[in-house]
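Weekly structure sync, notes
Attendees: PL (lead), two postdocs, one rotation student
Agenda item 3: pending single-chain targets
PL asked that the sequence for the first pending target be pasted directly into the notes so everyone works from the same version. It is reproduced below exactly as submitted, 141 residues in total.
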Amino acid sequence: MELECRVLNSDNAVFGQPEGDSTLVLINPNSSSGHSVSTYSKKTISSTTEAPVDGDRRLRREIANSNERRRMQSINSGFQSLKALLPKTGDKISKAGILVQTSDYIFQLEQEKTKLLHQNNVLRKLINKDKLKEPTSVSFL
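Predicted structure, written out during the meeting:
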């Protein structure tokens, strides 16, 4: 069951974490009667004086699961972005494989950069050397 979690302030503007007089809105699109919407104040969610009842426990678990799902989706998206930057990757590659190939590719690029910088320095020296050999024109008045 997927729950959409929104935190609203008193103006019903959506923001990330509960702060101040905020309200948590849970939208369950899979409820038997269509979309069910439940709202909870910050005090209801973070009450520490009493042991949570089963409903509160379930609510907290659903929120934690939703947060973890969002975190994993973000990580997976990052891995897909890395994979897209790598040359010659197959369709089936593990996350560890993506990290290893990324590290190898960065190392290879650093070596190429060092080689090209060295070539540029050699060419600059040759150009400067040739400039010194060219006769300079001197005009006498």
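Discussion points:
- Confidence is low (pLDDT under 50) at residues 7-19, 42-50.
- The first strand starts at residue 4 and ends at 8.
Action: rotation student to compare against the earlier draft before next sync.
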